[in-house]
Write a structure and sequence with these properties.
6 helices, six-stranded mixed beta sheet, three-stranded antiparallel beta sheet, 2 domains, alpha/beta, Metallo-beta-lactamase, Chain A, 26% helix
Length: 179
């Protein structure tokens, strides 16, 4: 499964001419996950990969430099006739954030599913999960790790023999991907 990370914003709290605020797009197969949505996320997305329809958004915390791109992105999706629901994950307080942003966003023509997740929680997907952990920051914040399910690697018989593995049951188990 192909996995790529597109760094849309790597700057600090203040955007500059060359760097936008926090946002990373993860592409895994046909899925698109957006981590944070700082100011300028749409523009950077259009410049790099086009305005892709993300499947899920994960917010680390609610400082402006991590969320101010949300109203514009959601409105753009609405104006370009997005139909499928958009799932947004974030730390406790996510629902309150969207309640406050509602007047900016207005009515959307697609569903918005909000999921508050705490450190230690995980969001399961086919073949991987996104794990939330507590991040060190001056406010409550989450970090995320995309963890793929284990899968056997390629067996190299010559390397096994060189490592002293005798042909037989152990050799056959290694060929099957067993430990």
């Amino acid at each position: 499964m192909d996995l790529s990370a597109i760094f849309l914003g790597t700057g600090g709290s203040v955007p500059s001419a060359r760097r936008s605020t926090a946002s990373v797009l993860i592409a895994r197969g046909g899925e698109r996950l957006l981590f944070d949505c700082g100011e300028g996320t749409q523009r950077q997305m259009q410049r790099s990969v086009g305005l892709v329809q993300v499947d899920e958004i994960y917010l680390t915390h609610f400082h402006a430099d991590h969320v101010l791109g949300l109203p514009g992105l959601l409105k753009t999706y609405d104006l370009t006739d997005r139909e499928r629901p958009l799932v947004v994950h974030g730390p406790p307080g996510l629902e309150e954030l969207f309640r406050v942003m509602k007047p900016l966003i207005g009515r959307l023509g697609f569903g918005l599913e909000l999921h508050e997740i705490a450190p230690g929680d995980a969001v399961g997907h086919d073949g991987y999960e996104v794990q939330s952990y507590e991040a060190a920051h001056n406010v409550r914040a989450s970090g995320y790790a995309l963890v793929e399910e284990g899968r056997p690697g390629r067996f190299d018989p010559a390397a096994a023999i060189a490592a002293g593995v005798a042909e037989g049951p152990a050799f056959a188990a290694l060929q099957r991907g067993e430990e």
